[in-house]
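Input sequence (196 aa), recorded before submission:
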Amino acid sequence: MIERIRTYLDQVGDLVLRIPPEEIERVTAILIEAYEKGRRVFVFGNGGGSATSAHFVCDLAKGTAGARCRRFKAMSLATNVPLLTAWANDTDYTNTFGEQLRNFVEPGDVVIGLSGSGMSLNVINAFRLANEAGAVTVLFSGFDGGEAAKVARESIVVPSNDMQQIEDVHLILAHIVFRCLRDHIAAGAGASIAER
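Predicted structure, token format:
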């Protein structure tokens, strides 16, 4: 059992090191621009991606909040279960994120979708709608990025076919981006929120 544990830890560590830092920097820059312009950030995914989207939004909305700085306008589209299931039941599951976006998305907003395979139709459809609205679309994926990578403006693709390890790395990426944003916001506000 200990060998299995060590192997898993080694594999995830290797995947993290294979992510080009420049890709993380580009996504962070997109979010900094959205923050500075007062734009909104929408995050969503299915299954484990749903949980990571909620975690990421929590970090963005609360973890970057300081007494003297503007708040991040971030929302997970995966956590409003009544609305999500209403769209899934009354239309089609592939509309669950796009139809929620239709109520809010505007030019300059950031739309982040998590799809381990890159083939989640509700993520792809939401990206198409967001692109048409003038939003910036960002994908966190694995495998080869799938169809979603062809639709998103920016993508970070974890070079793996192991869904659990892809999801592990997605949360690490979310934390890296959050820490960079938190430090940027704290520096601009003149007050440290780095201990939160």
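Checked by second reader. The beta strands are 40-45, 73-76, 110-115, 136-141, 154-157.
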